[in-house]
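The records we work with from here on pair a chain with its fold. Taken together, the tokens spell out the fold as the letters spell out the chain. To see the layout at work, look at the sequence and tokens printed below.
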Amino acid sequence: MTAPRIEACGLTRLFSGGAGVRGVDFDVIAGEIHALVGLNGAGKTTLMRLLLGMLRPTSGAVRIDGRPLRTADWSTVGHLVETPLAYGELDGRANLMLAARLHGADANRAARMVDDVLTELNLAQYAAVRARRMSLGNRQRLGLAAALQHHPRVVVLDEPTNALDPAGVILLREALVRRAADGAGVLVSSHHLDEVARVAHRITVINAGRVIGTLDPRGVDIERSFFALVHADDTHRDRSPL
């Protein structure tokens, strides 16, 4: 049996005040888009940072393509967490070339990758524009291009539709579907339930740092189901003894 693209077991990381994640078991398999949803502060970004080794867990472990984080092949991972990484004084093409080289592509392959993703995400008109002069939405699209251009086997995107216009959302949706169809494991976090339901194979709900259930992407009233899960969990925790 093929190992999951991402596998987390018992992940815990708490911060002062009680925020963080608690005992999370989670996976993303090859060929799927797995959506992680929750209210603001639920722990989505913290979990993603733990999965990528940006934070060290208090307990628990993460494996990428069956390998512990310390030995994972990071050239096969693409991610955008919180804000897109773009050097303001470099133009769009230079930023993408740099990202491609950092992912191990030689100069010729990097140039082809950049040309392809500029077309795929409709960024060609911004190839010669410095990142600091781009709108927030185009900087986001540039960050997504850097995360996706090397066709990674593992894709982790935190609120990827932030600041995107409707055309950008559609382009991203199509790009993620293509990556999953090619065998990538794709993890996206979002609070836009209607958007993730269009592309997700699985939807996991996180609340107060814990996985509390799943949603059916094809459900009739997914928003109602989501809030029912969160409300039930909040009520249970309020009634639990300290």
About this structure: Strands lie at 6-14, 20-28, 33-37, 59-64, 67-68, 77-80, 154-158, 185-190, 202-207, 210-215. Helices lie at 44-51, 92-102, 107-120, 136-148, 166-181, 193-199, 222-239.
